[in-house]
Design goal:
Elements lengths: L1 E5 L1 H10 L6 H10 L4 E5 L9 H10 L4 E5 L3 H10 L3 E4 L18 H16 L3 E6 L3 H9 L4 E5 L1 H4 L6 H17 L3 E5 L8 H4 L4 E6 L1 H10 L1 H16 L3
Parallel strand pairs: 1-2, 1-8, 2-3, 3-4, 4-5, 5-6, 6-7, 7-8
Helix pairs in contact: 2-3, 2-11, 6-8, 10-11
Bound molecules: pyridoxine-5'-phosphate (PXP).
The site of pyridoxine-5'-phosphate (PXP) has 19 residues, from β8 and α10.
C-alpha cells in the first residue's frame, strides 16, 4: 500500500492571503519525514491553491514521487508533459465546485474520447496515468477500454454515507476494486478519507494506493504536519494487516 499525501490545502491557506506562506514545498518535506510514499497536488485551471511554481519546485525537491492531478485541458496537459511527474491522475474539474465532486464521466462518448487522448499524451511522455472514477462497473470497463494503467476510485460517497448506507458503499468499492484488478488495472482510492473512516478502505486488498489530503492538513493545525502524516500512516498500516 502506498500512501500519498495531498498538500493542496497548505496552498489554500497561503492563497487566502495571496502571500508566500505556508509553502507547500516545505510541507512536502515534512510529509515525507512523516512517512508519505508520495506527494499529490492538483494544479487547477483557476490556480486557486497550487501554483505552477509549486509543481515546478516539487519536481525538483520531492524525494519520493509526485502525483499530479489535472483536468484534461490542453494548457495543463502541456505543463504535465513538460514537468513529467511519475504519475498523473486525470480528474473532472468544474469552476464553481468547492472540491472535486465525482469521477470522470467515462460513460459519455465525447468524454471517453477526450480522456483517452489525454491519457495517450501523458503515457507517451513517460508518465504513469491514472483516472479518477466512480466505483461502478461501466466506468471501470471504460477505463480498461482506453488502456488506463490505473484508476483512482472516488471514495466521496463512502465518506458521506450514513450508518444505513455505509456497508453498501464499502461493498461497492470492494466489487469495483476486484473488477479493476481482474481487468489488469491498478487500483487507487481517495477523497473524503479521514482518520475515522480510512480503515475499511485501507483493508481492501486490491487497493494499492491512497490519496488523502484535507483531513491530514486539518489535523496538522493542532499536531504539526509530520505527526499528522505519521498518525495516518499508522492507521493505514494497521488496517492493511487485516486485508
Ligand atoms: N483524490 C482526488 C482525485 C482528489 O481530487 C482529491 C481532492 O483534491 C483527493 C484524492 C483528496 O481528497 P481529500 O482532500 O478529501 O482527502
Amino acid at each position: 500500500m502506498r500512501f500519498y499525501v495531498n498538500i493542496d490545502h497548505i496552498a489554500t491557506v497561503r492563497q487566502a492571503r495571496m502571500t508566500d506562506e505556508p509553502d507547500p514545498v516545505r510541507a512536502a518535506v515534512l510529509a515525507e519525514l512523516g512517512g508519505a510514499d508520495g506527494i499529490t497536488v492538483h494544479l487547477r485551471e483557476d490556480r486557486r491553491h497550487i501554483l505552477d511554481r509549486d509543481v515546478h519546485l516539487l519536481m525538483e525537491t520531492v524525494r519520493t514521487n509526485v502525483n499530479l492531478e489535472l483536468a484534461a485541458t490542453s494548457e495543463i496537459l502541456a505543463l504535465a508533459c513538460e514537468w513529467r511527474p511519475m504519475q498523473a491522475t486525470l480528474v473532472p474539474e468544474k469552476r464553481e465546485e468547492v472540491t472535486t465532486e465525482g469521477g470522470l464521466a467515462l460513460t459519455e462518448a465525447a468524454h471517453l474520447e477526450s480522456t483517452g487522448k489525454a491519457l495517450d499524451q501523458l503515457v507517451s511522455s513517460g508518465i504513469r496515468a491514472s483516472l479518477f472514477i466512480d466505483p461502478d462497473e461501466a466506468s471501470i470497463q471504460a477505463a480498461a477500454d482506453i488502456g488506463a494503467d490505473a484508476v483512482e476510485l472516488h471514495t466521496g460517497e463512502y465518506a458521506n454515507a450514513t450508518t444505513a448506507t455505509r456497508a453498501e458503499e464499502i461493498s461497492r468499492l470492494r466489487r469495483a476494486s476486484a473488477l479493476a484488478k481482474e481487468l489488469g488495472i491498478s487500483v487507487h482510492a481517495g477523497h473524503g478519507l479521514t482518520y475515522e473512516n480510512v480503515s475499511p478502505i485501507a483493508s481492501i486488498p486490491e487497493i494499492e494506493e491512497l490519496n488523502i489530503g484535507h483531513s491530514i492538513v486539518a489535523r496538522s493545525v493542532f499536531t504539526g504536519l509530520e505527526r499528522a502524516v505519521r498518525d495516518m500512516a499508522k492507521i493505514i498500516r494497521q488496517a492493511r494487516l487485516k486485508a
